Amino acid sequence: MNMKIFMTKVSVVAAVVVVLFIILWQYTPFNPYLWSCFVTFFLYFCGGCKREEFIGYYLSSVLGVVWGYIWVAAIGAMMATGASYNLTTIVVCGLATFGVCFIHGVLLGSTPVNKIPAAFAGVAVMFAVNAQDPFGIMVCFLGGMIMATVINEVSGWWGSLPARKQSGGQSTDA
Predict the structure, then answer these.
(1) Would 23 be classed as within a structural domain?
(2) Is 25 inside any structural domain?
(3) In whole angstroms, what is the distance from residue 149 CA to residue 127 CA?
(4) Are 145 and 41 in contact (CB under 8 A)?
């Protein structure tokens, strides 16, 4: 299939799915964190949106939320002792960054939770919300990944349909 035609189909599907998602999401208690749905949406979509990696991406992002919660708490605890911002950053962020990379990349490297970018996405969102409502963020991450999956699956199905023939026997996707 012609890539321009396929991407046009993806664009139509994405527009419809995203609009429906946003409209429906406003009725959930997680609406204030709607933006965080798009963190895992983009991450999973850019990672190829492979069905077999869904659990790995999701669990890695959930572990990132846990990491982020611990990270924010550790920064708060260290700052409460009077430690400077720079010292706190060096100690907490340095150790935690090493921990995320080492644990997910080395110790868990051959498991589904080896998605280091997804773990850091969870950390980043927890920083953005000051470690508030980790469960809500996890729900939003799941919503974003489901949205990406629906777009990927519907676009793939639509893209696999045979092209219509114009008069003269020419395909419409040429």
Answers:
(1) no
(2) no
(3) 26
(4) yes
CA distance 75 to 28: 31
Q: Is residue 167 a part of any domain in this protein?
A: no
DSSP symbol at 161: S
Is the residue at 108 inside a domain?
Answer: yes
Nearest to 152 by CA among 39, 42, 77: 42
pLDDT at residue 166, rounded to an integer: 57
Residue 89 domain boundaries: 33-149
- Percentage above 70 pLDDT, the chain: 90
**Is the CB of residue 128 less than 8 Å from the CB of residue 34?**
no
Looking at the structure of the chain, the number of domains it has is 1
pTM comes to: 0.86
Cα separation, 57 vs 68, in Å, equals 16
